[in-house]
Predict the 3D structure of the following.
Amino acid sequence: MAVKYWDEKIETMELAEMKKLQSERLVKQVKHVWDNVPYYRKKMEEKGVTPDDIKGIEDLHKLPFLSKADLRDSYPYGLLAEPLKNCVRIQSTSGTTGKRVVSFYTQNDVDLWEECVARAITAAGGTDEDVCQVAYGYGLFTGGAGLHGGSHKVGCLTLPMSSGNTERQIQFMMDLGSTILCCTPSYAAYIGETLHEMGYTPDDIKLKAGIFGAEPWTEEMRQQIEKSLGIKAYDIYGLTETSGPGVAFECEEQHGMHINEDHFIAEIIDPDTGEVLPEGSKGELVFTSITKEAFPLLRYRTRDICVLTRGKCSCGRTLVKMTKPMGRSDDMLIIKGVNVFPSQIETVLIKDFKATPNYQIIVDRIGTTDTFEIKVELSDDMFSDTIKDVVTLEKKLGADIQQILGIKAKITLVEPKSIPRSEGKAVRVIDKRKLV
Ligand code: DLL
């Protein structure tokens, strides 16, 4: 029988009790950071705060924020709170711009990270009877290591596939009877596509669930993946700075992700002013790690925009929920003065046009004018040799995008399979303006 929770006591804890636990851990953590991280201590001193001022979570707002710029300034060891001899692992971002984010772990940090991921796998219906295929990239990226560790913790038979070699993924999936697939949603869509191309249907595989994250994906994309693989697709969220995947996870309700609040205190702030916003407001997500030993970031600005909601979920968990990130406060596109979130475009493409989730948004600037092009890959069904059909479809798509965004985009329909597939995070946006 499926087990409902990995850690029932924590996952269903009453709010008052959770706040008490968070307060105790926060007080301890602030002292740990003050004593061991001169970089953050200086920031606290500049703000006139000492550990004595932090008596519980009600004082959290007094602490200074940390941002990616701080991580860059203190790269690589400046925010480390433990002697190197106590650290057993690093993981890092795939960052293509600036310096990479490097996160450090003690053995205890690794254990707690795996606990968080184990909760996510359990919430997706995973038990020690499952065969869990991990197709996130292994190596420095936290996806492979995180899901791998969580899968072991749950006791699943773990297939450390890493990403890539899609036909072999499918072969293993069939031969070994994988029941859970973990990878980025774009890679899951590609695996689904390849499965069908190889002449199989979901009936030929045993998959029942997928745990997908690391990049934005829409409800429409969820439905497509669920259909092509015959599974329930669950979202998982996290970032290298806070260990990796498993900061938040979806449950059977598939409506928002529960945050592992006993390890991470979440706040929503106004990204422009830094003011803490009331529950239910849309704003930038900020995390404070209250149990990490080696790399305990306090009030770290994620740049992810979302909404937090509290209230008992139908799954019985009381952990606060975050919506899917709705974009980022730093890379939301502003095209011709209009704020554009790639997810809005994806919704039109998939929901209204049943297009494949393969598209690219290309933004450029000629003189002082922004150009905005969306390349959309046709599915085999939509593909037509008649120029007239293609033009009609381009026009219709263009009109719908304009209605949603308020600005015009040049729509270019391209042949099936002509947009490069991703085995990791998909590259959806090419903003050439940044290169100038
Ligand atoms: O992507 C960790 C991860 C691995 C999460 C596997 C889930 C599964 P980073 O490479 O540091 O870490 O990227 C973190 O990715 O700030 C979000 O903007 C984005 N992100 C992560 N999960 C989701 C998600 C990993 N479920 C950044 N939905 C974060 C939307 C996500 N965006």
User: Anything to note?
Assistant: The mean pLDDT is 92. The chain has two domains: 1-328, 333-431. Residues 333 and 339 are 6 Å apart (CA to CA). The domain at 1-328 is CATH 3.40.50.12780 (Rossmann fold).
